[in-house]
Amino acid sequence: MYDINILEKLFLNNNHTLKYDTEKYLTDYYQLKEMNPFKSAEYAQANIINFIEYANQCIKSAKQDCISFIFNRVTKDIVEINIDYFRVKNIHEKLLALEWRDFEFLSSTILEHCFGAFDVRTSQPTSDGGVDFLGKIPILSSETKEKYGVIEVYGQSKKYNGNVGINDIKSFVAFADGKKRNFVHKPQLFIFFTTSDFSNGANEELSVNGFIGLSGFQLATLIFKHKKILQNKTEIIRKILS
């Protein structure tokens, strides 16, 4: 396991250079861990294969999780930095600074403009009944764009600094069960947005119930990828992308 804060510092300390010799990069990494130059070079040579495997596994996992990662490519010869990672990180920091109500409005904007929902709205703050934003996602023909059905979407937003816990998800599950109590309902999707992340228990609870959970860094990556569509939609988005 490598310290992501030190990996970021390497980039910032080297005038935002985007490509590095792998062994030199790893040597500099160990020096930032306060090893002397000789010990750093020795550790770099001994751990270069381990570092390459770590970096490429992280790149693969990041793609699966739809998030940005600090590296684009790592081989025995070159480390290629992903500059977009730092732009996404900046967006995430602004998400963490949002007021909770602004995050709820932002969640509605994301649902509408990133996922193609319609009839989107944000719930009243005092009587949401377990849902913060909602809308409908159409099932469209990829060729004709004709609508063949609609999925109702119910979302909850949590502006947290710490991880969302299992009890947060269980409360949302209880809300979902209430929506289904008559066993006669339209197709429904339940989605949970947070500025932070999810505990292991929360992730398991989401999975067991077929809910979708998006972390703050996933949302930041999503906003970055849709910035051209989003940038003029709301004042909240403009501040985040500025």
Question: Any overview of this molecule?
Answer:
It is a single chain. It is built from 10 helices and 8 strands. The relative contact order is 0.11. The strands form 2 sheets. It has a 5-stranded mixed beta sheet with strand order 4-5-6-7-8, sandwiched between helices. The chain has a 3-stranded antiparallel beta sheet with strand order 1-3-2. The mean pLDDT is 93. Strand 6 (147-158), helix 6 and strand 7 (188-194) form a beta-alpha-beta unit. By secondary structure, the protein is α/β, with parallel strands linked by helices. The longest helix has 28 residues, at 37-64. The chain has 2 domains: 4-81, no CATH class; 91-241, Trna Endonuclease, Chain: A, domain 1 (3-Layer(aba) Sandwich), CATH 3.40.1350.10. It is 51% helix and 19% strand. It is elongated, with a radius of gyration of 21 Å. Helix 2 (22-32) packs across helix 3 and helix 4 (83-96) crosses helix 8 (216-225).
Care to count the β-strands? 8
| Structural class computed from helices and strand pairing | alpha/beta
Strand order of the largest sheet: 4-5-6-7-8
Gross CATH architecture of the largest domain: 3-Layer(aba) Sandwich
Question: Any idea what the radius of gyration is?
Answer: 21 Å
**CATH C-level name of the largest domain:** Alpha Beta
What percentage of amino acids are in beta strands?
A: 15-25%
Low-confidence stretches: none
Broad shape: elongated
- N-to-C SSE series? HEHHEEHHEEEHEHEHHH
Secondary structure: helix percent: 40-55%
Largest sheet: 5 strands, mixed
